[in-house]
Amino acid sequence: MRTLEDSTLLLLVIAVSLIFAWILWPFFNAVLWATVLAIVFAPLYRRTPIIFITAVLDEQIRNHCNTLVHVGLGIARPKSMPQNTGHTALVPTLDPAPLLKERRL
């Protein structure tokens, strides 16, 4: 015979599992295709040397970080951002003086 604690735990696990399935139901197709693609390409991934994978990922991560830093500091602009046409709202300012003056007033 099960104790009250065992029955409560089982009921709680079933309830949480059903709620989790209800939340993930809209994403069923994406999860299904991700699983199928992972199964199909797993042998290719296993045969690819780890050194090659880490070298490619390291270079991609380094490039993305450099881009984020340069755009964030205003050193470079993405191609989608227009050149300075006199509208300063498009170009982030590095000078905090105008902001400080507005706060003092």
Tally of helical runs: 4
Gyration radius (Cα, Å) is 26 Å
Head-to-tail CA distance between termini: 74 Å
Low-confidence parts lasting 5 or more residues at pLDDT below 50? none
Q: Which class best fits the helix and strand makeup?
A: mainly alpha
How many separate domains make up the residues?
2
Anisotropy-based shape: extended
Helix content: 55-70%
Please count the beta strands (DSSP E, at least 2 residues each): 0
SS strand fraction: under 5%
Q: Give helix and strand order, one letter per element, not per position.
A: HHHH
Residue-averaged pLDDT, rounded?
A: 75
The largest β sheet comes out as: none
Structure explained in plain terms:
It is a single chain. The protein has helices spanning 4-24, 28-47, 50-73, 97-104. It has 105 residues and is mainly α. The mean pLDDT is 75. It folds into two domains: 1-47, no CATH class; 49-81.
Topology (elements, then pairings):
Layout: H1 4-24, H2 28-47, H3 50-73, H4 97-104
Summed up, what is this model?
The protein has helices spanning 4-24, 28-47, 50-73, 97-104. It has 105 residues and is an all-alpha fold.
What features would you highlight for this structure?
about 100 residues, 2 domains, 4 helices, extended
